[in-house]
Specification:
The complex is a heterodimer.
Chain A (H helix, E strand, L loop, with lengths): L2 H14 L17 H19 L22 H10 L13 H12 L14 H9 L24 H4 L2 H9 L1 H4 L6 E6 L4 E9 L3 E6 L4 E5 L3 E7 L11 H12 L6
Antiparallel strand pairs in A: 1-2, 1-5, 2-3, 3-4
Chain B lengths: L22 H5 L20 E2 L13 E7 L11 E3 L2 E6 L3 E5 L6 E6 L18 E3 L2 E5 L4 E6 L5 E6 L14 E3 L2 E5 L10 E6 L5 E6 L29 E3 L4 E5 L21 E6 L5 E6 L15 E7 L2 E9 L4 E6 L5 E6 L6 E4 L5 E3 L22 E3 L4 E8 L3 E5 L13 E5 L26 E8 L4 E8 L8 E3 L3 E4 L5 E6 L5 E6 L9 E5 L2 E8 L2 E6 L4
Parallel strand pairs in B: 1-31
Antiparallel strand pairs in B: 2-37, 3-4, 4-5, 5-6, 7-8, 8-9, 9-10, 11-12, 12-13, 13-14, 15-16, 16-17, 17-18, 19-20, 20-21, 21-22, 23-24, 25-26, 26-29, 27-28, 29-30, 31-32, 32-33, 33-34, 35-36, 36-37
The chains are: A alpha+beta, B mainly beta.
């Protein structure tokens, strides 16, 4: 067996050795059931979609699916706006039963996904503190040109991910990590050990952003070993439900350079 | 099976190990021939490389190392930049790729989708990027300038340079000078008012903006009548050059609008068809030289200003060489724009010569009669090369190519074509196929009687042709010379050619099968010198065989 083949088999075994992929446990607010989300979907279509649009983004400054509101944060706020109307009569008051109200909030919080997980969106300012502080997120992630590039840049993450996916990222990072972003560790014939993030790969080569933020390309035949992991290089810290909600709220504010 | 620990040392995160692509490095680009740091290979725009691994004896051994296939159809005019072992390359309409220059595999790709109403005369072209610091910069078809992180391809800022609704666009590679990124705008066929603008690389804020058509009260405005200046064209769509000692940037300015009806806009129409010298810090106009006053032939002066310091009539001088679309070759003093020499390099009949100040003596042809050179010019935007070793100036010319102009009155409508008539290309028999603006088919359906390529090597001291290399078809390919007196170029037929830069002898050729409408570059990684060409939809890189 030559060294290249050895390298490839190491990679394969490393992946097999990982635990089987598990769906996350029910997370966030536990009060929402899939029945409630389903009910909410029907109510949304009949009573809300005309103005808010099928994707929830037709009203300026609001994207219900992505959890972007003008002045609303908590479930309680949502309940009040739906019941009482808003915008000086632009949005009429809507009389809903308790189950229906529960359902429409669940549907919005689940990112319009009937199969989805309801997401609580907390306080963005507290989330920002967590991101740059105790959460340690900024140790690896870059935002708006600040911070390291070793983990994916999050400058526009709030524009390209739903709240449900962001929450999943925080609670079960291995499940939500894009495969191309997987961490790699390789050893060259010169015994240089390179850790980094995978950017591109084919049968014969792999392209990596290494831990010193260099773009590097390697021929697999010239590697002593090449391993790849489903796990992010640094898992998120333990967070309570409140903190996850705050962090999701902050991530949703990251809408890119535009 | 042992699994490794996934710990990335935080200490490594503190400072990127990448060297920054500083302004100082770009100033010294010629001393760093393993990289290719600007569109034209350095501020002098000589497209001359000091690399010597590939020479006249071994050039015949060049072999293909890798290909990168474009996923988009249309002419691929991009000229790559290579810095610190990464190639940065644009793809139609407005994508940037970071490519491994050893394997051709892609690290990242940034995609800008231009506005639906972006309007360009001649295809969704983009000619490349600028790099500065840890950033890559690209102008877009919808007239924006974007800054992207050089390492991870993330957008950092996106500035509006021109109004897309008025058909402003950007196709050229920007130029990075000090802390600024400088671009010009296209739209000379749509009644824009052209300008060059500089943006702070850090923030995307506008630093200065200099119009190529003077406003009322400014010098030169008297060369326009009425409101003509407001939609008089004069775009800037090719990368300029920079002289750090003079602190001057030099830009070629395009045609006045409407293109073909000069009578509709009386006057010289400054600064259309001129070279303008702008202060790098303020954009202030220091001097100009107009090649074609009141142009009715679409003779954009959008050629690359090639800068060289040579002995001129017994005295060391700072010069600028310019083979113009109007068929004349010029030598100017780049400190003040003084005209030193001008001579035709192809057949010219729109003018009978140049006066002592370099101003053409106009000889407009009667209605229905051909004008030489034709609408695409004696040459065009294709980047030339100057070799300080051979002291020859190399560029692609079109021989035997003429146009019959049909001017008519045009009304300016914002955002619409503003052409002033049309034209026919002269053909051997009425209605026979002529030379089109681009090539879209592997079958060459015209004869060399209506235009063919002549790669010219000129001695700038005399304006005389020292040698030429002719091709059957015309060529829109740029030039590259090296310190081993090799000249690399291509053409519409799809061949890449390596010539002896001193004699013009063909030393090597390879059929890549698609038109070459860019200028080749060379670079070195891990001790191996590479040559990169784009042919059709393929970027191909060559090197000598490994032993």
């Amino acid at each position: 067996m030559n060294r290249a083949k050895f390298g490839a088999s190491v990679m394969l075994l490393a992946m097999l050795a990982l635990p089987p992929l598990a769906r996350p446990q029910a997370v966030g607010d536990h009060q929402y059931t899939s029945e409630a989300i389903e009910l909410g979907s029907r109510i949304y279509t009949s009573q809300c979609a005309l103005c808010h649009g099928p994707q929830g983004a037709l009203v300026d400054g609001i994207d219900l699916r992505l959890g972007i509101f003008r002045g609303v944060a908590s479930d309680e706020d949502l309940r009040r706006v739906i019941a009482e109307g808003s915008g000086e009569g632009q949005m009429p008051a809507t009389a809903l039963g308790e189950n229906e109200m529960e359902g429409i909030i669940a549907y919005i919080r689940a990112g319009f996904d009937p199969e989805g997980v309801a997401v609580r969106i907390g306080d963005a300012a507290r989330g920002e503190e967590l991101f740059y502080g105790r959460g340690g997120c900024a140790d690896c992630h870059r935002v708006n040109g600040e911070g390291p590039r070793t983990a994916p840049d999050l400058s526009d993450i709030g524009a390209i991910r739903t709240p449900a996916v962001l929450q999943l990222n925080l609670l079960d990072p291995a499940a939500a990590l894009m495969p191309i972003n997987r961490a790699v560790r390789l050893v060259t014939f010169d015994e240089e050990v390179v850790s980094g993030r995978r950017l591109n790969e084919d049968t014969h080569t792999v392209q990596v952003l290494d831990s010193a933020e260099r773009l590097r390309s390697f021929a697999k035949a010239e590697l002593g070993s090449f391993e790849i992991s489903r796990e992010p290089s640094k898992p998120p810290i333990d967070m309570n439900e409140e903190e996850v909600a705050d962090l999701v709220a902050f991530l949703l504010t990251l809408r890119g350079a535009l | 099976m042992k699994r490794f620990a996934w710990t990335i040392l935080l200490a490594l995160l503190a400072a990127p190990a990448y060297a920054q692509i500083s302004y100082e490095r770009i100033l010294q680009a010629e001393n760093e021939p393993e990289s290719w740091l600007t569109y034209n290979g350095g501020y002098m725009s000589q497209r001359y490389s000091r690399l010597t691994q590939i020479d006249q004896d071994n050039v015949g051994d060049l072999e293909l190392r890798w290909l990168l296939q474009n996923q988009v159809f249309g002419a691929w005019q991009s000229s790559p930049i290579v810095a610190d072992g990464v190639m940065y390359l644009t793809e139609r309409p407005n994508s940037i790729m970071a490519v491994d220059p050893v394997t051709g595999r892609v690290f990242w790709k940034y995609v800008h989708t231009p506005a639906d109403n972006a309007l360009v005369c001649c295809g969704a072209n983009n000619r490349g990027v600028a790099v500065l610091g840890d950033r890559v910069f690209m102008g877009t078809l919808d007239a924006r300038l974007v800054a992207v992180d050089r390492i991870n391809g993330e957008l950092l800022w996106d500035a509006e340079v021109g109004d897309v609704n008025l058909a402003y666009s950007i196709t050229m590679a920007p130029l990075a000078v000090k802390d600024k990124i400088i671009v010009g705008v296209g739209g000379g066929e749509f009644g824009i008012r052209g300008y060059v603008a500089a943006y702070y690389a850090e923030t995307g804020e506008l630093a200065w903006k200099t119009y190529t058509i003077p406003a009322p009260g400014e010098p030169g405005h008297e060369t326009w009548e009425g409101d003509d200046w407001q939609y008089g064209g004069a775009p800037v769509w090719i990368t300029g050059s920079f002289d750090p000692e003079e602190n001057l940037t030099y830009w070629g300015v395009g045609n006045p609008g409407p293109d073909w009806n000069a009578a509709q806009r009386p006057g010289d129409n400054l600064y259309s068809d001129s070279v303008i010298a702008l202060d790098a810090d303020t954009g202030e106009l220091r001097w100009y030289f107009q090649f074609t006053p009141n142009d009715g032939y679409d003779y954009d002066a959008v050629q690359v200003p090639v800068l060289a310091d040579i002995e001129w009539q017994g005295e060391q001088r700072k010069l600028m060489f310019w083979a113009n679309r109007n068929g004349y070759f010029y030598v100017l003093d780049r400190t003040d724009g003084e005209y030193l020499l001008g001579s035709p390099f192809v057949r010219v009949n729109w003018s009978s010569g140049l006066d002592e100040n370099g101003r053409p003596i106009p000889t407009p042809q009667p209605e229905g009669m051909p004008t030489w050179p034709g609408n695409q010019g004696g040459t065009n935007w294709y980047p030339p090369s100057w070799s300080p070793r051979t002291e020859l100036f190399y560029f692609s010319a079109w021989e035997d190519y003429a146009t019959i102009y049909e001017p008519e009155e045009s009304e300016y409508v914002p955002g619409r074509a503003f052409l002033g008539g049309g034209f026919d290309v002269l053909t051997p028999a009425p209605g026979a196929p002529g030379v089109g603006i681009g090539r879209t088919n592997p079958i060459n359906n015209w004869t060399d009687e209506v235009g063919h390529a002549s790669l010219k090597a000129l001695d700038p001291r005399t304006g005389e042709e020292v040698w030429e290399f002719e091709q059957f078809d015309v060529s829109d390919s740029g030039m590259l010379t090296t310190a081993t007196d090799l000249l690399f170029t291509g053409g519409r037929e799809g061949y890449i050619h390596a010539l002896d830069a001193t004699s013009g002898d063909l030393l090597w050729k390879k059929n890549l099968g698609g038109q070459i409408v860019m200028a080749p570059i060379t670079y070195m990684v891990d001790g191996i010198q590479y040559l990169s060409f784009i042919s059709g939809h393929v970027l191909a890189s060559f090197a000598l065989p490994e032993d």
